Amino acid sequence: MSRLNDIRSRSSWADILEGQPQHVMLAVLLSLGAFSLLVPSDVRLWGLTATGWAGWSIGLALVHQILVGFVFRLQLHRNIMSRAFGDLDMKIWAVMFMPLLAARPLTLLMTGLSDGVPIMADPLPLQILGWVLAIPAVWALYSTFVFFTIPRALGGDHFRDEIAEMPLVNQGSFKYVANSMYGVAFLGLWSIALITNSWNALIVALFQHAYIWVHMYCTEGPDMRWIYRDR
User: Fold this and answer.
1) What is the C-alpha to C-alpha distance for residues 125 and 145, in angstroms, rounded to an integer?
2) DSSP 168
């Protein structure tokens, strides 16, 4: 029996829900904390103020990760996407996943560009730090595309046995940081906030980086224990 079919034959609804009550609780707490720290600004960009863009950024991040948690769990344990879409399962998932992923830095950038609330009066030190942080972030993105590959980043190990059987990646930034996508690539969000010297973008970057680790510990971590239990 294949690795994924073995998981599906043994798992229960309790396994599917593992970590999800914690996910919901932490999502609510982080969202409330982020919104409480936003500072209103009168500047508008494409019809929205910085807090408006920040609200969209936080909201879309919530939609993204809740959707990923739902699909990852039901695909891993019940094969839901493959049963619904057959061989097109990963292509359809990519169409669902990628726009929401791209929206995260884009809405953060719009927050920063529209913000009239600076982090510091003198933006230069923050901008220098922002460009410094951009270097490892770009390296991690390059390592993700080249060594980790997009199919694996989409959660391909939940869909295909041949991906689940692949060895863990230890090249590029993954050689130094095991979870380079979350630990290093997300520094790019901080980079955007610092370069734009935007308080509200900084809060959104903090929220997004904290929330992706909620996904890691509440959803992806338990999934990885199922998929890579004998590694």
Assistant:
1) 31
2) P
